[in-house]
Amino acid sequence: MKHVIDESEMHERYKSEIFDVMENEPYARFLGIKLVKISEGKAVAKLNVKDYMLNSHGTVHGAIIFAIADYVFASACNSYGKTAVGLSTTINYMKAGKKGSCLQATAIEEKKNHKLGWYKVEIESDEGLIATMEAVAYRKSQYFVPTED
């Protein structure tokens, strides 16, 4: 009989290790994105907008907004210690982010099964909601935390 892993238990048992793995994601660290919180299927991160993150019009570049959205999506879908990768994303930009503002992105899992996970992401700044993302993750069979004692 195949052993079934309780993912809630995995999250609770390895929460700090999972947080550390996600917090040390190289590109997020390069940009200065800070992981604030990770829980089962949910993640929150912040980023202080620097001058080099602006576009030609003096507002936050769409790639920066996408980067923080993608990062919290990755953190949320990997929050059980099971390796998950992005399959598809759709982002909607609603308002320009401003120079000197703080972006906060929140990813929330809507549903998951053994192979896929569906997520909603909101990106806010000092001016309110600036973008949303819908994302789908492919959940691989391996875990990046121990599964046996």
From TrEMBL:
Keywords: Hydrolase. One of its GO terms (molecular function) is hydrolase activity. SUPFAM superfamilies: Thioesterase/thiol ester dehydrase-isomerase (SSF54637). Residues 57-129 form the Thioesterase domain. It is an enzyme of class 3 (hydrolase). Its EC number is 3.1.2.-. NCBIfam families: unchar_dom_1. This is PaaI family thioesterase. It comes from Lentibacillus juripiscarius.
